[in-house]
Amino acid sequence: MTKAKTWALAVAAAVLATSTAALGQAADQKLVDEGRKAFNSKTWDCVKCHSAEGAGNKKLPMERLNKMAPEEIRKWITSPAEMTAKLPKKPAVPMKKQDIPPAEVDALVAFVRSIQK
Ligand code: HEC
Fold first, then answer.
1. In the CATH scheme, what is the code of domain 28-115?
2. Structure pTM?
3. What DSSP character marks residue 67?
4. DSSP structure class, residue 97
5. How much is the pLDDT for 20?
6. Gap from CA of 49 to ligand 1 centroid (Å)
7. Which pLDDT tens digit goes with each residue over 23-41?
8. Where are the beta strands (DSSP E) in the chain?
9. CB of residue 112 inside a 6 A radius of ligand 1
10. CA of 48 to the centre of ligand 1 (A)
11. Ligand 1 centroid – CA 51 distance (Å)
12. Residue 19: strand, helix, or coil
């Protein structure tokens, strides 16, 4: 391969890598936006007990979680009773399990993760 061809290939590979990363970011942002909608929706009513970005019940702001791992956030959303059982101090109004479709659970996890400090 000539030097010029090798160079051209390297440039093409770099352009491809950059645009793939940009696409990934756009997809992440879309998921976060969907999660924000789900979080604030009347259907799941997370804001009855939690707040995010200043809206909702300020007693349990999602921002305070300090980088809770995504798997742990997911567990809270899908098995709240199991997670509540692990708390040293039981909440007065515990979180109840809701039948949230997996795609919306993914979006909620992405949103909650995105706003943590
Ligand atoms: C009936 C009130 C209630 C509702 C509705 C509710 N939660 Fe919770 N949630 C709680 C309580 C109470 C805890 C435990 C707080 C503690 O003491 O750490 C909790 C904990 C969590 C946690 C673990 C981090 C934390 O704040 O302690 C996440 C993440 C979470 N909830 C997400 C959600 C999402 C997403 C929704 C909506 C799908 C939701 N919750 C709906 C009451 C609720």
1. 1.10.760.10
2. 0.87
3. S
4. -
5. 86
6. 7
7. 888 889 999 999 999 999 9
8. 51-52, 55-56
9. yes
10. 10
11. 10
12. helix
- Tokens at 14, concatenated: 């770099």
Ligand 1 atom, smallest distance to 64 CA: 26
Residue 75: Cβ within 10 Å count: 16
The answer for residues whose C-beta is within 8 angstroms of residue 62's C-beta and 6 or more apart is 39, 50, 51, 52, 112, 115, 116
**∠ CA 20-25-27, rounded to 5°:** 95
DSSP code of residue 44:
T
With the most atoms of ligand 1 within 8 angstroms of its CB, the residue from 60, 63, 71, 72 to mutate is 60
* Any ligand 1 atom below 6 A from CB of 76: yes
Which residues have C-beta within 8 Å of that of residue 74, sequence separation ≥ 6? 105, 109
77 lines ligand 1 (CB under 6 A): yes
In which residue are the tokens 């770099």 written? 14
| Whole-number Å distance between alpha carbons of 30 and 9 | 32
For the chain, the structural domain boundaries read 28-115
